[in-house]
Design goal:
Elements (H helix, E strand, L loop, with lengths): L2 E8 L9 H16 L4 E6 L9 H11 L5 E5 L9 H13 L2 E5 L11 H35 L12 E4 L2 E4 L1 H15 L5 H10 L11 H9 L6 E2 L7 E2 L8 H13 L16 E2 L8 E7 L4 E7 L9 E3 H17 L1 H41 L5 H16 L4 H15 L4 H8 E6 L5 E6 L11
Helix pairs in contact: 3-4, 5-8, 6-7, 9-13, 10-11, 10-12
Pfam family, one: Zn_ribbon_recom
Keywords: DNA recombination, DNA-binding
GO molecular function, one term: DNA binding
Length: 456
Amino acid sequence: MEQVYSYDRTSVWDTQKVSNDAQWEIIRSRSLEDTECIPQRFSDRGKSGGNDDRPALKKLFIEIRSSYIKRKLYVWRYDRIFRETQKALEFVELCHKHNVEIISISEPLPEGSSSLALKTMFVQLLFINASMQRETIIENIRNGLAYKRSNGDYISSAIPFGYQLIEGKIIQNEQEAKAVKRLFELYASDDYGYKRLADKLTEEGYLFNDHPFKVHNIWNILDKSIYYGIVKGGTFGEYKGNFEPIISESEFKKAQAIRESRNVTKVNRREYPLRKKIICPYCGRRLSPTQRWNYSKTKRLHYYHCTKRECPGIYVSATKTENMLLKILKRFVNEDVIYQGIITEIDSQMKQLIKKEKQKDQKNAQSRREIVKQFEDGIITLDEMKDLLSSFDESQSKQPIPIENCRTQLDQLLELRKQSIQQLLLDHVEVVTVQKDKKIDGVFLQGLSENICIKK
């Protein structure tokens, strides 16, 4: 039985476009008619044709590359596979190489188009035509928007608070327009901040979309020039609308002057002693400090967070994490069990290393004796013996001295006990590891390889 595949894709959920299921039904019927087989289906929903990272498309590529036997691939249109001409041509070449015939139901190849050259030319023509159609549509839309702008028509689909859309024209919503006008009047008195102004409007019975005014609603309304008749036209630039403004230009500019006078740059003066010391439990990157504003509690919240975009990300409370670390450091300094446990561990490592050093010295002495014996037996000359001994001694001198490293760690550990908790935190904490539940599971001080968070 002939092996048959199908691929369908939609970039967005839209009832006016040919859905994945509609494409599949068309392909399925055609495949049954041609081959009496139901194709192996590969389907990507809500995926752009310009995006190569599509799960079903990746699986289709693997399937195509897996064999060179004759097969068929049904698609509704070529642009379901790729939007870009070059990528579509590369896909056609791959299918031709692996003996896979592409059948586009809406764009059938002319009779006798079996060669790769003819397929390539046909696909190029299809994509050139599609590109011209897209450019024409975009140009027509832009021309239409430019015409609306020249007439002063509102060209956005988002209707601001205070207005409503009726038969393609925006007119004032009487109740909402009163709220906007009152908002600017109260703010112009210079007696109200955003929070107090929101409370005042609610107290007077004004609502924002059937809800009490919030601080961000006040900010958004004060920021919009549309209320005095000027539309921000995006790439077309600002223009005067043909609708009735709610306030005057002078009222708007007075509000902006008050906002400017109250605009104080907020500087984060908090110290972050664990900056670049906490390791992200997901990707291993060191966390950076950040702050957020909690409107419900009207205060800043401080965090350490992962800045890597591909990472699932983690936010740990700066205050909670620092307090947790202080407790660990206090226990480390004050509890002899932990402290002595680390010293015992380092001491044990030193004893093992001394034993290994003795064994190594015995082995080196044996190697030197073997070199000398080769000279005595006449196997090597005197100069060769000197060179071999010199090379051997040089190689041994380059070896690290782990015992000295352990002694240094022990000296540093004894010195650390004299430091204050705060000084340990600021100067000596090198790495802090946290679990995905944000609990600290590792604390490593400078010069020490032992995790002081582990209870001995």
